Here is the input.
Amino acid sequence: MLQLEGALTVSDAADRLGVARSTAHRVLAMLVYRDFAVQGSDRRYHAGPVLELATHSRSLTARLRTVALPHLEGLVAVLGESANLIIRTGDRVRFIASAESTQALRVEQREGMVFPAHLVSGGLVLLAEAGEAEVTALYSGGVAGGVAGGVAGAAAAPGTPDLAWLRTELRRVSARGYAVNRETSEKGVTAVGRAVRDESGVAVAAVSISMPSARYAATDLPRITGALALAARAIEADLSADRP
Here is the structure.
C-alpha cells in the first residue's frame, strides 16, 4: 500500500486492512522498525528505505547485476576476497550482487542485504558523489562523535553520523577515489570500495572487496584499489555495451 498508494495514517491503514486502529498501529510500528516505512512530521506513514531501494530502476539494477557478476568473480580470483556490487537510495545501500571468497576464513556473500550508507565503503563512495545539499538533508540530525558515537563495529545501533565528521570523510573519499570501512559495518570485517559510473560519468553503483580484518594491511591498498579500478572500468564498459 505504501509503495503503490502513498502515505497513510493509522486510520487509513486500519480501514484498508480491516483491523482495529491498535492493530494497524502495531503493524506500522513494525514496518518502521524494519525500515519498510517512515513516519513523517505530519504523523503519516510513508514508504521507507527498503521499499525505496526496491523501486530503484529495476532495468538498470538487473543490467548492473548481470554485467558485474563475472567481474566480481574475477576480483575474487585476483584478490582472494569476497566482492560486491552496491546501489544507494537515500541513506541506505543494497548489495545487489556478490561473489564469495573460497577461503576458509572469509566474509560471506551480502547479496540482498541493506545497510546504512555511511557505514559501508561502497556507501561512502556513493555519498561522496552526492551533492552537499543532499548529504546535509540526509544527515542534519547527526550526533557528535563520528560513526555511532565513535564506537567501531557498532552496526547494531548505527544512529546518525555527525555531519561535520561525514563531510570530512567524504572529502577524503573524493580525493582518494576510494573508501575504506574498518569494522564500522561489522566487527572483524574491513572493506574497500570505489564507484562504477555510467557513460555520463554519474556514479550508479559501487564495487567493493570485503575481507576479515585480520587479513587486511594498509600496505595492501595499492593492490586492492588497482584491482577495483580495473573491475570498475570493465563493468562500465560492459554496461555501456549492454545499453538498451
Summary: The chain has two domains: 2-54, 58-241. The chain has a mean pLDDT of 85. The CA atoms of residues 125 and 194 lie 6 Å apart.
